[in-house]
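During the reporting period the student researcher (J.K.) took over the structure-prediction task from the postdoctoral fellow and processed the backlog of single-chain submissions. One of the processed entries is reproduced below for the supervisory committee.
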Amino acid sequence: MSQTAARSLGAGAAVVVLAVLPLAIGSAKSTEPTAQTGSLTVNISGHAGPYVIEVSGPAPPPTRPATLRDTTGEHTAAVVPSSGHCAPDSRRAAFDQQQTPWCLALGEAPAGHELTGSIANGSGAKLTMTVRRRVAFLPGPFAALVLGLVAGLSVAVLPRLLRRLVRWVVLTRMIRRADQDTSAATRIQGLKNWAEIQRKSGLGREALIAAVSRVTTSGPEHAKAARARLSAALAEISSIPDDHPLKAAARAIAGSTVNKIDDFYAGGEARATHPADQWTAAVVRLGQYRKELDSQERRIDALPPSGRQEARRAWDKALVRFGSLKDPDALVTMEPALDQLRDAVDDAVVGGTTRGSAAPPPAYVPAVRGRLEAVTGLRLRGGELTAWIWIARILTAAAVLIALGYAFVTIKSSGYDAKPLFAAGGDYLTLFSAALASGVSATIVALLGNWRPVSSEDEEK
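J.K. obtained the following structure tokens:
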């Protein structure tokens, strides 16, 4: 072979090699396996300890731990592979058509944060994990939901409670002001104890407030006017000595500035008149008694001396009785003495003749006057209407329970289950607000149930 032929053969071989070599390299690359990737999102509710996940992936299982982080890098959680027995809390599939179990133990993830990271096996397969943890439904979110419903239901009773509170504040203030008033003319002694006794005896709140308001507002003024009238009546009986028991007592009452609750109320009933007015009537009557004694004395003096002895003795007895009168209740004891005096004087005037010598008529029992009083009371019963009221109550309660149950499930689904990162205070507030609105709606259902008649006691409440 010549030198020229050898050169030609070498050049051809080189061309063949250059043509075949890229094909061989490409074929070698095409036989290398491609790394597989998968992704997994894990939502955890209230699990504080390690959370074990079994993931079906390519062989071999990973052996190196990984770290998951949030976007700020402040909160982290470790993912540790386990080669021993796997007791998973959850089984997941993150790779297509792979059956090798990866046992991954997730460390404690902070509630309310989303953590992301990757873990790979020895063959390059990589799993991207996203973990989101929220607080457990019990007890926090459950308590917020229930409290919201209860707070909504309290709308039915809260106005009544507030009204009672305001009423008691008003009542207490009126009593304290009247009890601690620095002016004796406007202070009312015993008001506090009287109000407490009336409250314990069952007097309604509104009635008690009205009574205290009346006595504190106009009681001292009425007492002052009544004492002024008594003073005027005392001025009209100047002929009676000042040391007369009844007149002396009336003068003390007229000059008093002390107001007592007993002056305005006898137990739980309002007095028809002030005690000073009762004494005024007694003073007027005392003056009338004095005038009659004086007129009878003039008649006696006009009699002949021989016929006035019985009349004079009757007059002396009436005068003694007159001088012993001490209070308005004693005035009735004066009437018999005056009757005897009138009879004695009349007998003396007509010459000593006695009246009523004829036989008296047979005695008889007078019929009772006044309003008819039934011995047996009319006891009416509710009958069928009462049964229907109870049915309406049960139906209303059932409607309220259904509304509350539906509200509970709906609010939990939208306010808790739909939030994988439920943990912040705003989440609790949103849950409470939704429950509160639903509770108010259930309360409206209860209030619209027309099954309870309104009584006078309810009006006072």
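The committee noted the following: The mean pLDDT is 78.
J.K. will present the remaining backlog at the next meeting.
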